[in-house]
Amino acid sequence: CPPRPEALIEGLLKLQDKIDEEESLMAQKRDPVHKPINA
Length: 39
Fold this sequence. Notes:
Blueprint: H1 5-30
């Protein structure tokens, strides 16, 4: 039997949260915190 609509929506929201976490981790790798200072 197919999943209930509530279960489907909950699964999609969890997937979206995981994607958001992954995107923020990739952004941190792209923009390092310690940038060289030009003196």
